[in-house]
Amino acid sequence: MSVMDSSDDEKNGVIVNHVTKDPGHNSSTKFIDEVLSGPSELCRENFRMDKQVFYKLCDVLQAKGLLRHTTRIKIEEQLGIFLFIIGHNQRTRAVQERFRYSGETISRHFNNVLNAIMQISLDFFENPGSFTPPEILHDPRFHPYFKDCVGTVNGIHIPVMVGVDEQGPFRNSNGFLSQNVLAACSFDLRFHYVLAGWEGSAPDARVLNSALTRRNNLCVPEGKYYLVNTKYPNMPGFVAPYHGVYYPLNEFPCGFGPQDAKELFNHRHSLLQDTSDRIFRILKERFPILLSVPPYPLQTQVKLVIAACAIHNYIRQENSDDWLFKMHEEESEPHVEPMMQVEIDPLISTETPAVDIVCDEEQLEMASQVRDSIAAELWNDYMLDLTST
Questions:
Q1: pTM here?
Q2: Is the pLDDT of residue 307 over 90?
Q3: How many beta carbons lie within 10 A of that of residue 62, not counting itself?
Q4: Quick one: pLDDT band at residue 356, thresholds 50, 70, 90?
Q5: Do 58 and 181 have their domain in common?
Q6: What are the DUF8040 domain coordinates in residue numbering (predicted)?
Q7: Which of 223, 315, 337, 376 is the most buried (most CB within 10 A)?
């Protein structure tokens, strides 16, 4: 990030006080005042969350001693600067003009808030429970077949900026520089777990192996599993689709149906797996800085991914009616291009994923039996329904 010289314009900046009042600091008209004294829509537009959620996050950060008021800038404005940058992908110069602070002040408070969010990020992630998610329990397409499924695991590539000497490992299969981020998601659009920072060239299975073997690891409850796509192996705790089996991305066309148990399984699996795509779309729409190459050190770029996911979870926790969640909850079918009707990704449909995870033959066979039993149960009930109509 470029750092501008400090200037005296900070002396003119104050905000509407929410938590405490600084008696020695006089109020004046500023951008933060306009946003926080205006309608909630203004807060959503600028800070990417409703006003009450914004204020509560300020309280949390202050109560834990992670942020404090200074003589020139309050906690609300510190958080506002950070959210405005990641919510609009604004560079320092534009943020300077908006908040009327020097580049040094913008940079310092951006990093202070980022580090504060990172310190409490684990509080915003919860491991899955042992119960059947209601999104499965109350949908006859998925219950009782996927009753032991707790969510989905998928990867996403986030653009990165690294030095010329470091670019090789970060160049992904599409030729772009990225970090390979793994996320475990719940069906109610929360992140259970996020691992960021792996090079873009790293195979997805290797990133999953890292998530399972590191100290702060991805936990799968006993007897439960996540759904994964064909980039990952079918193994204990992770159920993948059948390789090389074609299925429609939406519902089957009128007059057509699945030809066998594997095709039906892959179709139902894909409907559930779409949760990962939806949660990634919400995340990127709320924080478009993740769509670009932010001019920060690599460590900061990695932190930004974790912080964005943590704030996403916090918003979901505090306001389930948040406008972006409501918008994507209404999606009943996978998000695909109109012309893509009956195909899966030809680049990965018949490939065996690179397996770095150590599983013995017995474990792999048991995982295969789990998948086969789900497919068989789905198919038997499907055929019964056909003969009874």
A1: 0.85
A2: yes
A3: 20
A4: low
A5: no
A6: 27-119
A7: 315
